Amino acid sequence: MAIEKWLAVTSVALFAMFAGEMISVYNFMINVPEDFDFATSFSADPKIIQFVSIGVAPAGILAAVAFIMSKKYGSRQIGGLIIAGGIILLLGMSICYTLIDDIKEIYLSDSVKFIPVLFMALSFVVIGIGTYLAKNTKKRPKKEFF
User: Fold this and answer.
1) Would 141 be classed as within a structural domain?
2) Average pLDDT, the chain
3) Which end of the chain, C or N, has fewer beta carbons within 10 A?
4) Structural domain count of the chain
5) Three-class SS state of 133
6) How many whole angstroms separate alpha carbon 14 and alpha carbon 143?
């Protein structure tokens, strides 16, 4: 496989990791244990910033680099992988958005409310870029050896 395919695969994995991390922290805010001593001092904002910086930001960069490397000739495989990453991000953020209503009021902040919406919008951009790449496939020019 070429390097751009591996970059696209890694971006899909990072999109999936980010969605899983966000779902887990939202689920934690819903089901906080009663014996949790720091229940009032817990804030999801630093965790969300951490998850964005280790998950979705590198995933977006890797998807963009894979797109840039293969946009000249197009690639159905790389486009499909980028689309899959966008769909995973969309599904994960929509699950997080449905969990917002069940989160206890003490844990709600602006980032908890708006991060899923922001990344749902970003997922449509990622899906669009992947669709553009998958649709615009051109034949590679033949190399003339003699």
Assistant:
1) no
2) 88
3) C
4) 1
5) helix
6) 36
Question: Is 142 a domain residue?
Answer: no
Residue 72 has a pLDDT of 82
pTM across the whole model: 0.86
Task: Give the C-alpha separation, 8 to 65, whole Å.
Answer: 9
Write the CA distances from 118 to 11, 97, 110, 122, integer angstroms: 18, 11, 12, 6
**What share of residues in the chain are helix, strand, coil (percent, to 5)?**
75, 0, 25
Domain hosting 33: range is 3-135
Distance CA 45, CA 54 (A): 14
> Is residue 5 over pLDDT 70?
yes
Task: Report whether 79 contacts 133 (CB < 8 A).
Answer: yes
Whether 123 is in a domain gets the answer yes
Q: Residue 106 gets which letter from DSSP?
A: G
**87 lies in a domain?**
yes
Q: What would the mean pLDDT of 85-106 be, rounded to a whole number? A: 93
Statement: residue 53 has pLDDT above 60: yes
